[in-house]
Amino acid sequence: MIIELMSSIVSFVCALVAVAFFTLLERKGLGYFQLRKGPNKVGLMGLPQPLADAVKLFSKELVKPTLTNIFPFLVCPFMSLFLSLMLWLLYNNYFVCSMGGLSLLLFLCISSLSVYSVMGAGWFSNSKYALLGSVRAVAQSISYEVSMSLILLSCLILSGSMSLNVVMKYQLYIWIIFINFFMMIMWFVSCVAETHRAPFDFAEGESELVSGFNIEYGGIGFAVLFMAEYSSILFMSVLVVSLFYGGLLFVGGFGIFFYLSIGIVAFMFIWVRASYPRYRYDLLMYLIWKSYLPSVLNILMFLIMLTYFLNL
């Protein structure tokens, strides 16, 4: 148990460090996409900028608006960060070996619970903008969890297990992306919607909701919500590589390719944000219920029949 605990703590610390420098990558990337430099004043080429931002945010005064329900208002951001870090228990460390064959079931449970922290952050703020942002976020998350669960089920049907390690071992000879390319595209779009990123950032629609569900948060509360969002983005990138790109092939002596693939997928989130304007909310809902859901169900039925005849 001591080894499991230490392994989990190391995963959490590494995830938080990755989150800090992923924010720098995003700001630099968006800067060059928009023909400007991005942060370059702090230290050498702006590299310590995430540390300066952390010092600034964590040293600011904790503002408590008069109309908020103080205790749950303060707890919700930390609950969001806790749930996003719990996902990193599925990362390929010692703990995942003791998870048995249900590691992806744990992913579905934790990703479903993360809706409550966003809803609570908006509800307990007692602000109309925060409430509207949280209602949008909950509707969006619940809708896209349907497609994510079904796409994940397609990978589980092919591999015959709910263990992430088994799904990775299944891709020893052929990656699932070659069998299931359209599922991979839909999975990535669902991940973008699930993490509330542009062009699906309706929960934080600055143009109409000021800042969405986190409008009343400042300083440490805003920083913790920010860290939770970016931690989820990085974990989704890990999951994309593990489920569709044969992650196990890159572990061990060729681990550098595994991390490079994760970096490329994470950079895709930034690239999408820089390239596309915000979608319309009704079109977002039509996309999942009228396009993705019928398509995923048809592909899923085909894969079930395919695996049935191959096992005869």
Automatic annotation (TrEMBL):
Keywords: Membrane, Mitochondrion, NAD, Transmembrane, Transmembrane helix, Ubiquinone
This enzyme's EC code(s): 7.1.1.2
GO cellular component annotations of the record: mitochondrial inner membrane
Enzyme class of the recorded protein, top EC level: translocase
UniProt source species: Acanthosepion esculentum (Golden cuttlefish)
Pfam families referenced in this protein's UniProt entry, alphabetically: NADHdh
Transmembrane segments: 6-25, 70-91, 103-125, 146-166, 172-193, 220-245, 251-272, 292-310
Annotated PROSITE patterns: COMPLEX1_ND1_1, COMPLEX1_ND1_2
Protein name according to UniProt: NADH-ubiquinone oxidoreductase chain 1
GO molecular function terms noted in the UniProt entry: NADH dehydrogenase (ubiquinone) activity; NADH dehydrogenase activity
